[in-house]
Amino acid sequence: MGDSRSLGGSYLCFICVHLWLKNMTTDAKILSALRANPDGVSGAQLAEQLEISRAAIWSRIEELRQVGYEIEAEPHLGYRLISSPDALHADDLLARLGKTKIIGRDIRVFKETTSTNDVIEKLARDGVKEGVVVFAESQTKGRGRLGRKWISPANKGLWFSILLRPDMHPQETTQLTVASATALRRAIIAETNLRPEIKWPNDILIGGKKVAGILTELSAESDCVKYITLGIGVDVNVDAHELPPEVRKLATSLKIESGAAICRAELATGILRELDRDYARICAGKFSEVADEWEAGCATIGKNVTVLMGDRKICGRAESLDDAGALLVRTEHGHLERVIGGDVTLEK
Length: 348
Ligand code: BT5
Prior knowledge:
The chain has 3 domains: 4-83, Winged helix-like DNA-binding domain superfamily/Winged helix DNA-binding domain (Arc Repressor Mutant, subunit A, Orthogonal Bundle), CATH 1.10.10; 90-296, BirA Bifunctional Protein, domain 2, CATH 3.30.930; 304-346, SH3 type barrels (Roll), CATH 2.30.30.100. It has 11 helices and 14 strands. The termini are far apart. It is elongated, with a radius of gyration of 22 Å. Helices cover 37% and strands 27% of the residues. Helix 3 (43-50) packs across helix 4, helix 7 packs antiparallel against helix 10 (264-283) and helix 7 crosses helix 11 (287-296). Residues 115-117, 139, 142-145, 148, 150-151, 159-161, 202, 210, 213-215, 231-233, 235, 247, 250-251 line the site of biotinyl-5-AMP.
């Protein structure tokens, strides 16, 4: 009984991997095979695995070299990946990401867009399935909340958006911002030796300065979410001089904090993997698990805060999150206020 269950499991797993490989482009499959075989893989093996001719493999390898992949070819060892370019490539991101449930099963990279959230909105209206991720090397109209500007220096950060179609009420969507913050924090910790903190609802801070922001935009009909555009900006290799002075005071980057440039593709796929995990937890009704982790990594809980919501101002102590991801603030008069948006300032 035990045996047949586990056989069934591995068979299903084999089908999943097979489908995942089938959906990959030839370049993604080649990069995936090169990464899996750091000592080299022969043209014949690649040709057999990918079911195309050796000449076709050679011509794809040439094209990968043209876009900056350093691939060595040795008569006995075959092809070996020596280095990858810093530029983001959809095929490479797919190959590095491996299999995920939803997030990242379709990845698109643009050299420049207005805002990656705009591109996702168009894809959403065209009926594209959830999970598609759009990266841009630069944005001409990157935006934050309430029409604020998001500075996106070219080739230096991760500026990307994800299309989600969760089965949830519009009031619950703060859960997704909370989940994104926990996923971002985990991925940054895994990729660097830094200790980022979360500031409710959408900031990741290092040493009190902002290193990443999240913009969750919602399209809803009556009581139902049609789709969510989850936009994430991470200052990866941004140098201080690339930010305008007013932003420089409040912002930092992973490179500034760690003193070394970070591989953007590795960080990007780390974030997508973590997001996929947290999105699955939320869809399975396990938001409380995510919320516990969020509270453990959060700079807001237990602090005295001032919250500005339009022209309303709430002062008090941030106590916890509720089931929908709203922040519960105990005011100086002892009332518990439920905060679902606005700007939070941490008081010293
Ligand atoms: C945010 O808004 O923090 C959400 C940022 C989301 C950006 C991503 S990039 C991909 C996707 N496409 C988009 O167009 N947007 C998303 P908010 O909490 O309103 O913070 C905005 C404020 O952060 C600005 O007013 C500046 O003070 C500051 N800021 C702007 N650019 C920054 C940067 N690169 N790094 C850190 N802080 C920045």
